[in-house]
Write a structure and sequence with these properties.
By secondary structure, the chain is α+β, with helices and mostly antiparallel strands. Strand 1 and strand 2 form a beta hairpin. It has 3 helices and 4 strands, in the order E-E-H-H-E-E-H. A 4-stranded mixed sheet has the order 3-2-1-4, with helices on one face. Helix 1 runs antiparallel to helix 2. The chain has one domain.
C-alpha cells in the first residue's frame, strides 16, 4: 500500500504491517472521539512514526498514486476529525 504523509512524501507499506497500523488508527480515533488533545497528539505521532518505520520511502520524483493520505504531524484534532471515515484513517 502506498501511503502519503502530507508534507513529507510517500512510503510503501507491506500488507503484513497494515494490522498494526489499524490498531494505532483505532487508538487515534478513540482519542479524537473523546476530544482528548494530549492523547490525540500522542497517538497521531505514534501512528506516523510507525508508518515511517515500517514503510519504505519512495523517491520524491515517484509518480505512484497514493492509496491513503495521512495528516501531517502538526495537524489539529479538527483537521484529522474531518479526514476520518467510518473506518478511521486506515481502512481495514
Amino acid at each position: 500500500m502506498i501511503i502519503r504523509i502530507m508534507g513529507e512524501g510517500q512510503v510503501e507499506v507491506a500488507p503484513d504491517d497494515i494490522a498494526v497500523l489499524n490498531d494505532l488508527d483505532s487508538e487515534l480515533e478513540a482519542a479524537i472521539v473523546a476530544d482528548n488533545e494530549d492523547e490525540f497528539r500522542t497517538k497521531l505521532h505514534a501512528l506516523l512514526d510507525k508508518v515511517r518505520h515500517v514503510g519504505k520511502s519512495l523517491p520524491d520524483e515517484s509518480l505512484e498514486p497514493s492509496e491513503l493520505i495521512l495528516p501531517p504531524a502538526d495537524a489539529s484534532i479538527e483537521e484529522v476529525r474531518e479526514m476520518l471515515t467510518d473506518q478511521g484513517l486506515i481502512p481495514g
